[in-house]
Amino acid sequence: MDKLSVGLLGFGTVGTGVVHLLTNEQEKFRQQTGTQILINKILVKDPDKIRKIDQYNQLLTTEPSDIVDNPEIDIVIEVMGGIEESRKHIHTALKNKKHVITANKDLMALHGSELLQAAANQGCDLYYEASVGGGIPILRGLTDGLAADRIKKLIGIVNGTTNYILSKMSHHSVSYEEVLQEAQSLGFAESDPSSDVEGLDAARKMVILSHLAYSIPVTLDDVVVEGITHVAEEDILYSKKLGYTIKLVGIAELDNGEIDVRVAPTLLPTNHPLASVDNEYNAIYVYGHSVGETMFYGPGAGELPTAIAVVSDLISVAKNMKHGINGQHIFLPQNEKKLKPADSIESQYFLRLHVKDEPGALSKITGLFNEQEMSLQKVIQEPIVSKKLAEVVIITHTTNQQRFEQIYQLLADLDVVIDVKSNYRVEGMN
Amino acid sequence: MDKLSVGLLGFGTVGTGVVHLLTNEQEKFRQQTGTQILINKILVKDPDKIRKIDQYNQLLTTEPSDIVDNPEIDIVIEVMGGIEESRKHIHTALKNKKHVITANKDLMALHGSELLQAAANQGCDLYYEASVGGGIPILRGLTDGLAADRIKKLIGIVNGTTNYILSKMSHHSVSYEEVLQEAQSLGFAESDPSSDVEGLDAARKMVILSHLAYSIPVTLDDVVVEGITHVAEEDILYSKKLGYTIKLVGIAELDNGEIDVRVAPTLLPTNHPLASVDNEYNAIYVYGHSVGETMFYGPGAGELPTAIAVVSDLISVAKNMKHGINGQHIFLPQNEKKLKPADSIESQYFLRLHVKDEPGALSKITGLFNEQEMSLQKVIQEPIVSKKLAEVVIITHTTNQQRFEQIYQLLADLDVVIDVKSNYRVEGMN
Fold it and tell me: What is the DSSP letter of B113?
C-alpha cells in the first residue's frame, strides 16, 4: 500500500481546506501513515468556476459515480453538505468498499446510525470528527480519551453563529437584530440564519454527541429546542447584574438510565469556563462520573480548522488500512433510550416579569413562590418609569421542570403580573 | 482472547483508582473491548497496610517478578512512581512481551525514548496518557485529534499545586508562604514541595508534550526552568491592575525548525482562556498552524481522574490486542533538535523596579528604553511612602530575549534604580 487514492465530494470551504492540506503537507502525512495520499477526483457543480486552488482543475467532475463507483479510489471524503444526495453517495461508496469521511452534521444527526451500520457491515471506516466542533477533537475525546469513564452530562457551545451573536450582544449591549445584520455582513451568519438562530444546528450536533457519550440512539425529535431570536438586551443585562452570562448551549444529561437532551439559551455563572468561550469559538464541557469536569475548546468552524478534523480522520483511515482493521472503530448505540420525564429534569430558572408598579406587587409574587414551596436564590426589582411598571427578575433554587411549569402558569395568571417576558434555565452551578 | 490479565506495580492513590474502576466497571469494559479484564497481582511495599479496597488482599505481593516475569500476566500497569526501579520493571515486562501502561511523568520525561524504543522493538504497547494533565486526554489530542496539523506553540498549566497557590494568591491577596502552608495542610502540596514550586514537575511534563507535539527529542536539560517561590504579592497586584493574571506555565514553541521549551511564572491577559483555569485544574492551550487555537481542560491529578486516563489506555491496549496491532502506535521523536537562540526567542516582558523617589527618575528609565529603541506598552509609577521610594512597573512591547537581557542589565545599573524586583514574560497576546 504505497499509495492511497482519495475522491472528494464537494469543493467548497471545507473541501478547499482539505485539498490545501493534502497538497502542502504530503510529506508529513507520508511520514505519519507510511503511504502517499493522492487526490484522484473532485466532484463539483460548476467545473468552470474560478477557484482559490486551480492546480486540480483536470480532476474536477460533475459526475458522482466518477468517485463513488471508481475502482481506483480507496477513500471518499464527503464535504458537499445536504442530506439526500450525500446519503446516497455515501451508501454507494460503502457498497463499493470505500472508506468514508464526512463533515456533514445534518446527515450524521439524521441518518448516522444507518450509515454507520452500513459501514460496519462492509468492514469500512466511517469517520465524522469534523461534524461537531470543527477543529476540536471532541468525538475522539469521548470515544478514546474518556473511554473508561461514564459521562453524566455534556454542556456544549456547538454553534458559532449564535455564540458570536450572544457574545456581541453581551459585550457591546446591542440588540439581536443589529448583531445579526453585522454577523451576516461579516459572513459569520448565513443570509437565511434560521437553522443556526433557532437552535436546529446545535440540536443536530447534540444528537451526534449523545450517541457517542451515552451510546443511546437519540433522534432529533427527542431534542427540546429553543433558539435565541427572543433573547432581549434586558435578559443579558439582568443576567450580568446577577453574575451570569447567557449562552446558547446544548445539554445532554443521563441520570438513572434516563436521558434528556435540549438546546436553549441558558444562564451560566460568569466564572464557569464555558462563560468565557466567546465569538465563533466552540467548547464542549464534559462531566464524567470519575474524571470530573473536562473541557474541549477551539474553533467551531472555518476552512482550515474543519479540514484538520477531516484530514486527521483520513490519517486514522490510512493507519487502519495499513493494519487491516477498518470498520473496527464504529460506535453504534448499544443502550436503550428512555427519555427523562419532566418531573425529574432538575434545574434552576431565571424569570423576568413585567409587573404593575403598585404597593405589594413584589410581595404577591414572592408569596406565590412561598405558597408553592419553591425557594428563590436571587430577586431584583427595578422600576421602568417610562412604562409605569416594574421589572422583576428572579433566579429560583433548583426545582424540576414540571413544578416550574406549574408555577410559571400561576405567575402568569397573577393579577399584578402584566407579562412573563422570559424564562431560561440556569446551569453550571454543580 | 476472552480474558486479559493485568498486574499492577503500586497500590497508592492512582493504583487504588485503577482497581476501583476495574472492579466496578467490569461489564462496561467487557462491552468495549470484548474481553474480561482481571487483576492478577498487585505489587505493594507493605501487604499488611490497611487499604480502602481490601477485596484483593490475596493478590498482593512484595516481589516485582511475580508480575513482570509472570507468564499469566498480559499487561503491566506501573503506578508506583520513582525512576530507577520502575524503569527496570518496565524493561523486564517489555522483555517478557507484556504491554505497559504508566502514569509516571518523571520516568517518561527522563527515559521515555529509551522505553518507547524497547516497546517498539518488542512489538509491545507503551501508553502514558496519565503522565500529563491527569484526566485530560491531551496526548491523544496531539497524536490523533490534531494529527493533521503542525503545532507551533503549546502553553500548558500542567502543575496543579502551583496553579492552586497562584490562584489563591491572586483571589485572596495572600502571600506565597501563607498559601503554601494552607495547601500543605489540605494535601494540595507535598511536605517537600520543591519539585512542584520550583517548576521541575511542569518541566518534565513539557518534555513529554514536546516529544509528541513536535517529534523532537527534547531533554530536561533543554528546558529553562523558573519556579514560583519568588512571586510576590506586588507582582500579582500590578499584573491585575494592568489586566493580567500570573500563571506558572510551560511553553514549547517551534519556529523555523528551532525549538524553545521553558517553564516560568508568566503574565496572561485576564481574558485569555488559560487565565481562568483556577486552583488544581490543568489546561493545555495548543496553537496549530491550521486549526488555530484549541484548549484541553480538566483535573490535572487525583485518584479517579488519573485512573480514567490509565484505564482508557488499558482499553486501547485491549483493543490493539484484539486486532493484533500492538506496538504500532508508538511515537518516537523523528525530527532533529535545534534549540532556538536567545536572539530569536520573542516575547513581551513585565518588569517591576524600585526606584529613587526623586524628580526625573521615571524619565531616566523611559529614556533608557527609548535610547535602546525598545518601546513600552504600559507603565505605572506609584510611590511607596513608607520606604521613601517609588515602584515602577513596565510592560514592554515584543522584543527578543537577548535584547531584553541587555536592557535588564543597563536598567539595573542605572543610578536611579534601587533594585529590579521581578521580571516575567507576557504571553497569549498573539
Answer: H
